[in-house]
């Protein structure tokens, strides 16, 4: 891989444009649309080879048409197939299969940043398909294209599941807020556990709301019937909760009888929608778990307070852990590194600025949440093994808190450094000097196996709610890690004998 000023960009495309003669390179910019894409053919010198752009259907016939045009153009101008570079703006879901089909045909495809493509248009006052093609082609020739990430591979599937889960989480919250409005009219206080005794949006409260409960309806129901319904929904101590609900219904303000039928129907529909959204949300989280357990990223769940959702979100946004850049670059990508400005020669000191707004806000949210949870959660096996103090990240978090600093921001980089070392070395979260021979806190082999056993129980508890059936044993990294612990313990036992 050649070294250049764009290390994150497509190195293959950069080498092609650097080594091949410009007239011997064919650049094919594509402006994606849902039904009909627009494409153009140009030399590496920027000279268009067609008078008018091509209209390419977003189907098999369109792919065949575009590939035929590229093949004929290459034959006419004696351009080898390896010198063809196809590109377009970051493809949406409706264009992903089209881009993958171009790659499957043997052509290199690069994606360009839409903001950069807009900046390089030949006309900034107007917009059209032709002008969009100009911007895309110029960005490609400037070697600022990225490799297309396949959406059907493990990390692509993990990212799609994480983004889907995030969207569903917002919808669940919005639906709950709408349910609150209906409940405050029909049965004000039902979702306040101190008044009703019900867990908000738990099985019992959902069952009552699905039946279109109101103050009058709760008052008319027999206590035994209410207790039976709550027991069926999984409510603990249903008889006590039913008695509390009856007392609550007698003291609550009744609604206007004229609005009750409509509000009850509306509430029933919304509860059904909420249940479907929650089921869909659980499916997305389970898919995240299935993808994550097949990657070294599963080791991030050995952090206390970090579960499958947060660990999967970080890995989804950063990609394959084996290709992670340094922790500073990841923090900068997430918008957690302060911008600096320096000019006036080497004697001038850099001036710190503010946090950037153009960043990966999904990753930023995941990292800040992870820093908070890890920094405020005690390690479940730390005290059990007699380890001094708290685990390193919590001590670091508390030191920043005590001096009044930004504890989450200050913990993110340390968390990233540890996470990167863990996935690179394929190890769990350990005390800092656990593996350093001769260090005061170094672990003996027996103590290390005991620690791994305790962490293994913690990992099993975190992963037990997910369905991992069907994953091959050689692909299940959690199972492989547990088997490795068994082999280490067996080896030590044989040594003792």
As residue ranges, the low-confidence spans are none
Shape: globular
User: β content, as a range?
Assistant: 5-15%
How many H/I helices? 19
The main sheet comes to:
7 strands, mixed
Distance between the termini: 51 Å
How much helix is in the residues? Answer: 40-55%
How many DSSP E strands?
Answer: 9
The total tally of domains equals 3
The ordered string of helix (H) and strand (E) elements is HEEEEHEHEHHEHHHHHHHHHEEHHHHH
Please tell me about this protein's structure.
By secondary structure, the protein is an alpha+beta fold. It folds into 3 domains: 11-147, Nucleotidyltransferase, domain 5 (2-Layer Sandwich), CATH 3.30.420; 157-284; 293-496, no CATH class. The protein is built from 19 helices and 9 strands. Strands 1, 2, 3, 4, 5, 6 and 7 form a 7-stranded mixed beta sheet that branches. The protein has a two-stranded antiparallel ribbon with strand order 8-9. α13 runs antiparallel to α15 (361-376). The radius of gyration is 29 Å and the shape is globular. The two termini are 51 Å apart.
